[in-house]
Specification:
This protein has 60 residues and is mostly helical. Helix content is 48%, strand content 0%. The relative contact order is 0.07.
């Protein structure tokens, strides 16, 4: 299945609330949860997790 075509934010049919949500830069850090829970994450960054997901899909 081919992915859907890309749309610019201006061309997308979004509510003002959705448009504001996607316009903002949202950064997250996992430092606090790692420290508080005392865990070592299998995929410390979203990039590593995404790569693993994509690799698993191609293995199927």
């Amino acid at each position: 299945m081919a992915p859907p075509p890309l749309l610019s934010l201006e061309d997308a049919d979004l509510s003002s609330r959705a448009r504001a949500f996607y316009s903002e830069c949202r950064r997250v850090a996992n430092d606090r949860i790692k420290e508080e829970l005392g865990v070592r994450l299998r995929y410390p960054t979203y990039r590593e997790g995404l790569q693993a997901c994509l690799a698993a899909e191609t293995d199927d």
